[in-house]
Amino acid sequence: ACSEGGGGGGGGAAECRLCLQEELDLDDSDGSTADDGRLAYPCNCSAPVHVGCLKRWHRAQAAQTLEERRSLDELVARASICEVCGARLVVTGKRSRPLAGTAICRAHGGFGKVALRRVPTLSRANRNFSEFSASEGQELEVIEQDESGEFFRVRATGAQRYREEGAAAVAEGWIRHIYLEWPTDAQPLAAAALPAPRRPPAYAAGAEAASAVAREEAPPS
């Protein structure tokens, strides 16, 4: 078994947590390759998964996204994250390290809180948010960065519920980099490496529609 992603295997024969088999039956007719039969540890879960089974799961995610008319951004985010532990799925190579091990939450107003997301997507559907949050001025442990570069998975101690009373001893989730203040020594790297923040699909669509209306209503030159 392979452990690029960060999980690990114990003693004895391991089996895939999706198909519950040690070996995957490969079918050349559907484009399967020898690598599809490899057991990998792509996240922080202790059980491995066949590369081929993970590909099938990705296809199922895509089909569900089309059926439920979800955004492409959400599809990419959900396909890249483990539904159990919340970590990125890394099948080959090493898990990238974040800019710094800690950052300060900056809520920029509102409730003084930033809701933690279950997956790193701009979609604001309730299903994509956890019930916990990071609070203004709170130091967060930064665990990893998503593929887009815009989100970081963080760990918050004493995490407050976003809309209700109460807190959890520890909560993990994804947060946009615009809500993170980096340590002084990491700020130059952050300024150079982090992408410009994107607008959520609904806002982007609204802006495009407004721009189109403005063009239509503009007097001829």
Q: What attributes characterize this protein structure?
A:
globular; disordered N terminus; 221 residues; two-stranded antiparallel ribbon; 9 strands; disordered C terminus; single chain; alpha+beta; five-stranded antiparallel sheet
Description:
By secondary structure, this protein is of the alpha+beta class. It has four helices and nine strands; from the N terminus they run E-E-H-H-E-E-E-E-E-E-E-H-H. It has helices at about 50-65, 70-80, 185-195, 200-215, and strands at about 40, 50, 100-105, 115, 130-135, 140-145, 150-160, 165-175, 180. The strands form three sheets. A five-stranded antiparallel β-sheet has the order 8-7-6-3-9, with no helix packed on it. Helix 1 (about 50-65) packs antiparallel against helix 2. It is globular and about 55 Å long. About 25% of the residues are buried. Mean pLDDT is about 85; it is low at about 1-5 and about 205-220.
How would you briefly describe this protein structure?
The protein is α+β, with helices and mostly antiparallel strands.
Strand content bin = 15-25%
DSSP summary: helix tally: 4
Mean pLDDT: 84
Calculate Rg over CA atoms.
20 Å
Largest sheet: 5 strands, antiparallel
The percent range for helix content is 10-25%
* Class from secondary-structure proportions: alpha+beta
One letter per element, helices H and strands E, the order comes to EEHHEEEEEEEHH
Q: How would you describe the shape?
A: globular
**Count of individual beta strands:** 9
User: How are strands sequenced across the largest beta sheet?
Assistant: 8-7-6-3-9
- Cα(first) to Cα(last) distance is 67 Å
Poorly predicted ranges: 1-5, 203-221
